[in-house]
Predict the structure.
Amino acid sequence: MDKVNKIDLKEEAVHGTVKFPLAVYRYAGEGDFTVKLHWHEETEIIYLKKGRFCIDINMQKYRINSPALFFVSSGDIHGLYGEKGCEESAVVFDMKMLSFEHYDSVQHQMVSPLLKRSVQFPGAVTEKDDMWEELAGLYGKILAEAEREAPEARMRVKAYLLQILACLYGHGKFVHMDSNMDYDGKKIENIKKVLGWIQENYGRRITNQDMAAVLQMNPQYFCRYFKRAMGKTPTEYINEVRVEKAAEYLYRTDRKIIDIALECGYDNIGYFIKRFKEEKGMLPSEYRRSQNSIINGQNG
């Protein structure tokens, strides 16, 4: 089988196509749902339809009950966890698709500031907000039309997205970036840099000194800096990355477990199995069997 490629924290998946840079994703399952921390250039609108969720965005945690809409601006580091039985969907799109060829006041006041990141989307909008019915209705229309490739359907999708911008703008919900946010922005960029470095180097031995050197920091200060930002130690994060990569190998290849452990930076198979069980709730061999059972069930 093909070897799994190492990926950076920046998501490299293509959302939509060059002709229409928008994609829709859905989840409705019996188990819990996790999207690990990542970021992308596109804007994302997440609809939390059923259940309770925890969203990490730019090192801030939000616990949200459905129904709710959550907006992720371009470049935001974000992750999502939904409890068992949750349902959610997401629309991911390139904001440039809403730009006008003829520059006008709408472009100047709404679209351009979002593209330049001088303003950002709000976080969550819930059913307690006055604009909930309008936004939820527009989101539903986007989901319905996005399934079709006809030009008129895509035109409607763009129109509904622009209506969402108009609704948020009319209710004063866009967040203007200020000097205090510049410091937070630098912190976010630092975290992106070190997380990306970890993603590229998880297969080898990593020390605090190595990670601190990426940001030109003292190792002791770096460890405190990282934990304040991420809510976990560098070692805890590295183990999470390694286990996720190992799970991907188990799912997508037939390689021996000991080889996967070595590939993912574990030279002690016993420690690897211990960490994997702590993260996934089962042994690596059990995880592989469970994933194969799911695939066989879908093919059947």
